[in-house]
Amino acid sequence: MSHAISLTVNGEARAVTLDDPRVTLLDLLRERMALPGTKKGCDRGQCGACTVLIDNRRVNACLTLAVTLDGAEVTTIEGLATGDTLHPVQAAFIDHDGFQCGYCTPGQIMSAVGLISEGHAGDDPERIREGMSGNLCRCAAYHGITEAVLDATR
Ligand code: FES
């Protein structure tokens, strides 16, 4: 049995028919919507590489079934910049070298955008580290990441 859903992805209305209700949002974005910026790391909710915003809240796309998203508004890393102008969080990650290999960076940035919009970041590095703790960086660029989020909250 197929399922039809309508959702908004990066401001664009999308209608999707799902033949398999087990399809995750991560696979929907990467394989059917040509949005590979959202990364697949663990595919089991442990690394945060797949973080996106659903209705402005942070979620792991690998743990979210696409079939549950009828009417939802999804924002991915591809939807952050405005034309050639980076989102302030993207610019802050560049300014503070908040990455090394870059694989986790889309998830880190989406998580930071969510954290800041939730109003829980403040200017306390410890709170930022705790708020970003669901996003792992195998290169351990954590100092630059924290500095970038701090800068973006100012
Ligand atoms: Fe989703 Fe790791 S790929 S948390």
TrEMBL record:
<protein>
    <submittedName>
        <fullName>(2Fe-2S)-binding protein</fullName>
    </submittedName>
</protein>
<dbReference type="InterPro" id="IPR002888">
    <property type="entry name" value="2Fe-2S-bd"/>
</dbReference>
<keyword id="KW-0001">2Fe-2S</keyword>
<dbReference type="GO" id="GO:0051537">
    <property type="term" value="F:2 iron, 2 sulfur cluster binding"/>
</dbReference>
<dbReference type="InterPro" id="IPR052914">
    <property type="entry name" value="Aldehyde_Oxdr_Iron-Sulfur"/>
</dbReference>
<dbReference type="GO" id="GO:0046872">
    <property type="term" value="F:metal ion binding"/>
</dbReference>
<dbReference type="Pfam" id="PF01799">
    <property type="entry name" value="Fer2_2"/>
</dbReference>
<dbReference type="InterPro" id="IPR036010">
    <property type="entry name" value="2Fe-2S_ferredoxin-like_sf"/>
</dbReference>
<dbReference type="InterPro" id="IPR012675">
    <property type="entry name" value="Beta-grasp_dom_sf"/>
</dbReference>
<keyword id="KW-0479">Metal-binding</keyword>
<dbReference type="InterPro" id="IPR036884">
    <property type="entry name" value="2Fe-2S-bd_dom_sf"/>
</dbReference>
<keyword id="KW-0560">Oxidoreductase</keyword>
<keyword id="KW-0411">Iron-sulfur</keyword>
<feature type="domain" description="2Fe-2S ferredoxin-type">
    <location>
        <begin position="3"/>
        <end position="80"/>
    </location>
</feature>
<dbReference type="InterPro" id="IPR006058">
    <property type="entry name" value="2Fe2S_fd_BS"/>
</dbReference>
<dbReference type="InterPro" id="IPR001041">
    <property type="entry name" value="2Fe-2S_ferredoxin-type"/>
</dbReference>
<dbReference type="GO" id="GO:0016903">
    <property type="term" value="F:oxidoreductase activity, acting on the aldehyde or oxo group of donors"/>
</dbReference>
<keyword id="KW-0408">Iron</keyword>
<dbReference type="Pfam" id="PF00111">
    <property type="entry name" value="Fer2"/>
</dbReference>
